[in-house]
């Protein structure tokens, strides 16, 4: 059987670059599967690199020994095909002009010679890097035609080409406009072919590719990958380059060209020289000094001007970190000696930023600008680093705060160790080289989509989830939209759930992720994360109607249906639907505590204990005081009344869920359009309460609330407008990030607390009693309220119910009027009991509305009750809503 042969063609036109290195990482996966690897660097494709038709000389010295350098036979003999033709064609693109008249003839000649060369080398697989970059659209078109002509010679139609674009038009200096503007009408678009499998670097590149070429149906995300194993390094690196053993070393591993902005590292070095006195700080610039001499001259002059020329080392070109070749040092050698990797690149030049991944894989802290795609590639992966803010016009001043972070990493060994541990663990989840190997395996086995190999069996928009396992007791439902930044933590916490005797048996539960139109890499990331936990079952489905209520309902309904199909009418088998939010964190025994409590109490709903991490509010004591008082009051009330479910974490028995037809969807108008109501969890609890089923509070099942929920809405809470004003209810999704950071003033803190307690008391202490009056006979409730107050409320509730004329409190918000009325009538007594049970800091009731205070001052309690009724039932002014309805954020 002939040896399989891989042909690699790079449009980068450079012997060593990030694109070439990434191409060779994929090629190495082919090599390990027996392929001979041929590489066309692309000299005869790019005219701007000055190497068109130039012969190879010493390029192989910087490449692995298993790479053979090749090029297309006779390409220099094609009529009209020369650098001038390439430059004129490229110039026509932004101008919107058609190519020269010889264009078709050049394409045909290129196509024939590509096919002939592949036939001569007996090529069996092709790897294209950056083929869609419009540097040479004639070559791109010829490559597509060659793939179609050559494919049938390999037998039955099957994929044999991996086509990956690192620098799509929108990623490669879009502000320069050198490729024109979207939709790039003259650039050959990716086309569907039985022979081609397309790869995008990340979800953003995939999304933008599909915006430009929506017809494309075979596009998968494959990030750049890095070797997280210990890479062998050479000795004597520091001595060879004159770096003192005691010095701190900052590494910069990029080309020395203007767009990479190495001048920022030199400026940083000058700042650090005045901040760090116990050891010298050196900067190592690894890059070919001959590639762009004016840049090197400018950098040397800058270093002289700032007085750090003796601390800047121009180290020349180093061999790749993951693919060392020949003699000499590699990037791995540099990183083994470096204290930091710096990547203060320009705003829109980078499409990926390999130096960051190399640093993470090498166990070296890094610092970076927040270039255009930084958050997409690295920032949402849970990595920790000083990040310099940068504007689209490439303005990025070295702020004092940024320099302080760099100093801390260079001088605090404990901090450095923690950063390295975090980044290594997070980075390995996303960027391990095994991902490239999996793609190669899928191509070689004909498994184009690879769906069967993934632990995620459902895909967005479908309900293709396997039947429920025989021993599964719980399904965790998580609505998600653009939650890639939070998924690693929540999935890791679910995969690491503990039972009473160690790890929780993973057969007891599975996870249903409901994707609600995510625009980031949420779904792909879920697949990747699940693969890291053997036996952890995670399914993904889609819900196209926007709204967390819609997503939660879809997931819960599917989970209930799977349990019903398995259990039928067997009432002895209890199965629980568990709700979680992707931005919250659950305790290690979260599921076990819920399961134990639900089985023991035979309750319909189990409510978790919610808390905030106080460390997130350091420096914000007034805000934290308001939050802490609210949380402590809630725990006391829920321990007696049982509480109400919150999407952040609760469990419901499957049969109880189906008995009330599950989560109720309601709609409200927002900017003239109907949107789903966001209070689905609370309203669902009301439905269950009204049936008389029990709700149990499970304090051992703990959920940490993401502080962004507070940060997003705190200003509006203080202003009394968090959930609308003027009687207009606005149930907002507060999951998106807010400004955060600031503390409240004394006046704002008082306002926030008053709104919080006014929201808390009717909903958490009064509502349960309205829905289930028998609770007022419970010993725990009597202990909280006192016998006298419990008796008085028990007598008053049926009177108010009769006066209100409502017999069903389950419709959304119909419970408000009686709860508000009971609050005004019993506020003094209720606050007195909270002061006794929670602490004196609970204080006294907030001031009454002036209109009611005026009546109270008359001393006529009957008249006061009468006007409380008018106030709470007034649907015209909305005064009662504005008084109560803005504090539920805590």
UniProtKB/TrEMBL annotation:
Lineage top rank: taxon: Bacteria
Enzyme class: transferase
Keyword hit for Transferase: yes
Stored SUPFAM superfamilies: Nucleotide-diphospho-sugar transferases, UDP-Glycosyltransferase/glycogen phosphorylase
Keyword Glycosyltransferase: yes
EC number(s) given by UniProt: 2.4.-.-
Glycosyltransferase 2-like domain boundaries: 475-649
Keywords: Glycosyltransferase, Transferase
GO molecular function: glycosyltransferase activity
Signal sequence extent: none
Protein name, entry field: Glycosyltransferase
Species name: Kineosporia babensis
């Amino acid at each position: 059987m002939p040896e399989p042969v891989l042909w690699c063609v790079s449009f980068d036109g450079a012997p060593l670059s990030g694109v070439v290195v990434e191409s060779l990482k994929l090629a190495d996966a082919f090599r390990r599967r027996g392929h001979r690897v041929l590489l066309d660097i692309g000299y005869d494709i790019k005219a701007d690199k000055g190497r068109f038709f130039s012969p190879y000389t010493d390029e192989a010295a910087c490449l692995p020994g298993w790479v053979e350098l090749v090029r297309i036979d006779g390409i220099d003999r094609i009529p009209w095909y020369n650098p001038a033709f390439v430059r004129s064609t490229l110039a026509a693109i932004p101008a919107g002009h058609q190519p020269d008249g010889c264009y078709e003839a050049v394409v045909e000649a290129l196509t024939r010679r590509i096919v002939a060369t592949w036939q001569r080398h007996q090529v069996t697989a092709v790897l294209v890097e950056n083929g869609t970059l419009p540097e040479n659209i004639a070559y791109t078109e010829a490559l597509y035609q060659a793939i179609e002509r050559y494919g049938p010679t390999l037998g039955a139609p099957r994929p044999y080409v991996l086509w990956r674009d690192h620098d799509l038009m929108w990623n490669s200096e879009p502000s320069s406009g050198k490729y024109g503007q979207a939709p790039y009408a003259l650039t050959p678009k990716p086309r569907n072919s039985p022979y081609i499998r397309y790869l995008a670097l990340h979800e953003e590149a995939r999304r933008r590719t599909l915006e430009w070429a929506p017809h494309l149906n075979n596009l998968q995300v494959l990030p750049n990958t890095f070797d997280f194993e210990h890479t062998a390094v050479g000795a004597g690196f520091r001595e060879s380059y004159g770096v003192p053993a005691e010095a701190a070393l900052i590494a910069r591993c990029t080309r020395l060209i203007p767009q990479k902005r190495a001048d920022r590292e030199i400026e940083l070095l000058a700042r650090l020289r005045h901040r760090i006195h116990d050891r010298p700080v050196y900067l190592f610039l690894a890059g070919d000094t001959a590639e762009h001499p004016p840049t090197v001259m400018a950098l040397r002059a800058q270093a002289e001007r700032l007085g750090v020329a003796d601390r800047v080392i121009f180290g020349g070109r180093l061999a790749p970190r993951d693919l060392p070749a020949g003699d000499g040092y590699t990037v791995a050698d540099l990183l083994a000696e470096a204290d930091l990797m710096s990547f203060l690149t320009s705003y829109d030049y980078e499409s990926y930023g390999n130096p960051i991944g190399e640093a993470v894989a090498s166990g070296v802290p890094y610092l970076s600008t927040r270039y255009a795609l930084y958050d997409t590639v690295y920032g949402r992966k849970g990595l920790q680093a000083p990040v310099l803010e940068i504007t689209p016009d490439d303005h990025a001043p070295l702020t004092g705060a940024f320099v302080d972070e760099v100093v801390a990493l260079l001088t605090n060994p404990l901090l450095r160790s923690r950063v390295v541990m975090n980044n290594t663990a997070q980075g390995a989840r996303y960027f391990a080289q095994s991902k490239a190997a999996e793609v190669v395996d899928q191509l070689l086995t004909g498994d184009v989509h690879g769906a069967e190999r993934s632990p995620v069996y459902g895909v967005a928009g479908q309900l293709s989830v396997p039947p429920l396992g025989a021993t599964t007791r719980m399904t965790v439902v998580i609505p998600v939209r653009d939650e890639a930044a939070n998924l690693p933590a929540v999935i890791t916490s679910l995969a690491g759930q503990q039972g009473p005797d160690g790890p929780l048996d993973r057969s007891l539960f599975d996870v249903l992720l409901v994707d609600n139109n995510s625009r980031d890499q949420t779904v792909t990331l879920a697949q990747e994360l699940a693969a890291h936990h053997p036996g952890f079952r995670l399914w993904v489905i889609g819900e196209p109607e926007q709204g967390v209520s819609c997503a939660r309902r879809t997931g819960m309904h599917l989970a209930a249906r799977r349990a019903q199909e398995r259990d039928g009418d067997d009432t002895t088998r209890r199965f629980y639907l568990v709700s979680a939010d992707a931005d919250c964190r659950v305790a290690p025994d979260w599921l076990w505590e819920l399961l134990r409590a639900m089985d023991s109490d035979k309750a319909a709903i189990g409510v978790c204990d919610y808390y905030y991490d106080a460390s997130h509010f350091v420096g914000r004591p007034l805000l934290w005081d308001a939050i802490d008082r609210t949380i402590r009051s809630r725990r006391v009330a829920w321990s007696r009344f049982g509480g109400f479910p919150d999407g952040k974490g609760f469990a419901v028995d499957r049969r109880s869920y189906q008995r009330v037809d599950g989560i109720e969807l309601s709609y409200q108008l927002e900017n003239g359009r109907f949107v789903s109501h966001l209070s689905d969890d609370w309203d669902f609890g009301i439905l269950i309460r009204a049936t008389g089923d029990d709700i149990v509070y499970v304090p051992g099942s703990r959920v940490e609330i993401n502080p962004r929920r507070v940060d997003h809405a705190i200003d509006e809470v203080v202003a009394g407008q968090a959930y609308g004003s003027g009687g207009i209810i606005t149930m907002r999704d507060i999951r998106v990030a807010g400004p955060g950071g600031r503390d409240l003033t004394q006046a704002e803190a008082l306002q926030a607390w008053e709104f919080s307690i006014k929201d808390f008391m009717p909903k958490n202490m009064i509502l349960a009693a309205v829905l289930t009056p028998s609770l007022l006979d419970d010993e725990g409730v009597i202990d909280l309220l006192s016998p006298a107050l419990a008796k008085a409320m028990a007598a008053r509730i049926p009177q108010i119910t009769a006066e209100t004329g409502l017999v069903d409190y389950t419709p959304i918000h119909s419970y408000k009027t009686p709860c508000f009325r009971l609050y005004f009538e019993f506020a003094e007594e209720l606050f007195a009991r909270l002061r006794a049970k929670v602490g004196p800091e609970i204080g006294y009731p907030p001031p009454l509305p002036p209109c009611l205070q005026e009546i109270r001052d008359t001393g006529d309690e009957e008249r006061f009750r009468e006007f409380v009724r008018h106030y709470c039932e007034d649907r015209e002014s909305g005064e009662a809503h504005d008084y109560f309805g803005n504090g539920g954020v805590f």
